[in-house]
Amino acid sequence: MNEREVKAIISLLDDPDTEIFNQLEQRLVTFGPEVIPLLEENWESSFDPLSQSRIENIIHKIQFDQIKYDLQFWDLKNNDDLLEGLLIINRYQYPNLDENNVLLTISELKRNAWFQLMYDMSPLEKVKLLNNIIFREFGLSGNTTNYHDPQNSFIHKVLETKRGNPISLSCIYSIIAQQLDIPIYGINLPKHFIVAYMEDMEQPPLFYINAFNRGQIMHQNDIHSFLKQLNLPSSEEYTMPCTNKAIIKRVLRNLITAYENIGNPQKREEIDILLKIIED
């Protein structure tokens, strides 16, 4: 990147000719994230609302292109890392966030559980320990007052406010559990995402856990009854662990619904683009 060239292009962003501006914008977008500090510097020193607005849009386009690339790469090469997938989604709304804060919080919760974890604990005892650490001591809980808030889908916001939706709480729960070698995985239950304790991945779950209800234990008959109410079969699609890719798809679908509810078509369309990347 030629800094002098970039600064020269940025200085022309107040050009009233739309065609010229579009060419300048496209040129800046092709430079990628490296150009963002220079754009931000110009925004701070500018007193022209048009130029500032154009800079904001260019920065967003560059960041959105990077998120699309990161998500595509995750899907192809790194989809065994659920936390990374959630952090990529988080970057959509919070591109400048220090992600170490998320990693440190997860590590602290893991460490607090590890100190009390004993080798001879039964599966139920391990889950009770996790429930105590995550829900009682840390204070994570379901956001029942603003269930469809988009913030419920961004992991750093969930950890910060300690409020989330079923899938975000389930993700945090299973990430911590798996880091402790406790076999708890996501279950793509319709209308309500939960997790399950898997002693054997080839066999049905030992039991299910409702993270949205502070780690309530559920059994096979509870799940079958729930599916029956929805007129759905008790198939493995709904009763056995799903992939991380399926989880990220559902997080994105939740965000699409959330942005529809608050009347933000631009964000809804952009999230739909992200969803299509991993659906394809």
UniProtKB/TrEMBL annotation:
Residues 102-253 form the Protein SirB1 N-terminal domain. It holds the Pfam family Transglut_core2. PANTHER family: F-BOX ONLY PROTEIN 21, SI:DKEY-261L7.2. Belongs to the UPF0162 family. This is Protein SirB1 N-terminal domain-containing protein. The lineage of its organism: Bacteria, Pseudomonadati, Bacteroidota, Sphingobacteriia, Sphingobacteriales.
